[in-house]
UniProtKB/TrEMBL annotation:
Pfam families: dCache_1, GGDEF. InterPro entries: dCache_1 (IPR033479), Diguanylate_Cyclase (IPR050469), GGDEF_dom (IPR000160), Nucleotide_cyclase (IPR029787), Rev_trsase/Diguanyl_cyclase (IPR043128), Sensor-like_sf (IPR029151). Pathway: Purine metabolism; 3',5'-cyclic di-GMP biosynthesis. This is diguanylate cyclase.
Amino acid sequence: MIGRLRPRTDLRTLITLLAVASIVITLANALYATWRVQRAELIENTLENNRVYAAKLASTTELFFQLAQSQLRFSANTIGKDFDDDALLQSEVDRLREQTSSFNSVAVIDANGFVRAISPESLTLKGMHLDSDSSHAALTARAPMIGKPSISAANNLIVFISTPIWSRDGRYLGYVGGTLYLKKKSILNSLLGEQYYRDDTSLYVVDSDNQVLYHQNGKRVGQTIAPLVDDKTLDANKNGALEIDHLDNASMLAGYATVPTAGWLVVALKPTLTTLQPLTGLLFNVLRHSVPFVLLTLLASMVLARLIASPLWQLARRAGQMEEPGVSEEIGAIRSWYFEAAQIKRAMRTGILSMQDKIGRLRSEVQSDPLTGLLNRRGLSSVLDYLLATQQPFAILAMDIDHFKRINDNWGHDVGDRVIQQVAIELNNASRQTDVVCRNGGEEFLMILPGAQPEIARTIAERVRQSIFQSSIEQVGQISISIGVSFWQPGDGPFGPFFKQADDALYQAKHAGRNRVVIAGTVAEPLL
Ligand SMILES: Nc1nc2c(ncn2[C@@H]2O[C@H](COP(=O)(O)OP(=O)(O)OP(=O)(O)O)[C@@H](O)[C@H]2O)c(=O)[nH]1
């Protein structure tokens, strides 16, 4: 379990990843926020534009109807003065149609519904009785009116505008009416059609029954479509805007306005998709402009991440090498430029120093003999490892205090210990600086003489023997030691047999009467 928790990622990677992630998230956030704000703004602007546009067209259409009514009123006044004058009637309907260009056709109908004059005359309706609903409505209403758009006898979708004709003495004489052909070229068509099809905005006009009176797609004229807004909303707001989904299955942004005189509704539409098209470009632009900044930020944060993590990373690496020599100096060289790293660095250095101190003490305790302070066998083994590694020749002196048992027996163990200590001092004094003295256990000692040739080794061994023999030890007096000497040369193989040779030589020295030096491979000489 613990193994699984072992971290594999280092701090530098983590901080860098964190920096990259936060920059990416920030960028994504900024893009999303821009997208949302811009989307809302585009939709709102388009809705408002369409509303304003529909309102403008509706008021233009309203103005047109009022103008048409006043033109008809003027003619009605003229005709009312002499209703029997057919020529006057004809010239008035011709004038109305040709001069004003407001109507596709103009007619004067008498109070019984008979056509008294018509323009163009090609319609050949003069003298005929008009049975259309609009005509009946006009005759009944005896007031200015705009009829419901309907299909004419000549299969035209027409809208009929009429004004009553009164005689000077107030008799109702009939009405003068103009028609507009909604499917054909008419002033209304020109008015609506010329305006707009830029940037995918389209337009349609419906009457109060939702019959299409004008549409960009001419085939839709005359059809009935689903109401854009309910009547209540229309009554409350003469114009407005909304997003709709039902038209042609595509989401549309619609602005609408009513034409009060006719009860028509003008609707300007733009697909939501087209409206939002600039967003893609905008986002791309934002992204394009952000990239250098993002890269710079990324670079800066990576450098910063490295700067922050670097001291901790270096300290962590050194933490695995605390026992190695010089690690404290390496840690000291690490640039810890902020408080936490400096504190960790200081704590690590203090820890290393105290650890190394402890290890050093433990080592010397482990490698030295507590009674004499000389190296023990373990210490000797380190020295031998070194000699083996450096392939230096050396001499071995195996030494043993003569008749030591007697000393113990005569003066006690403590005095025996003091003798051992004294011999150790003498051995140290008689040895060279490069020689290694070691207590081999009990009253036995070993001396390693690196680089010593046989003659030098013999001289030193003899010097050691004499110095001990000549020294007088308190209480005990004179003592002696026996020494066996052997040599090891590079290429001689393992050390073991050479220590055995030194031991054998020591054994010979003892047998030969003690207090003497025997070189391995030679016969013990009698003491001089
Ligand atoms: N005081 C003291 N005595 C020790 C110590 N280690 C060993 N001895 C004693 O040293 C004596 C060694 O005696 P032996 O090995 O018989 O040899 P010897 O009396 O020195 O005689 P030779 O070596 O033959 O000259 C024993 O009595 C041990 O108890 C020690 O650390 N302190």
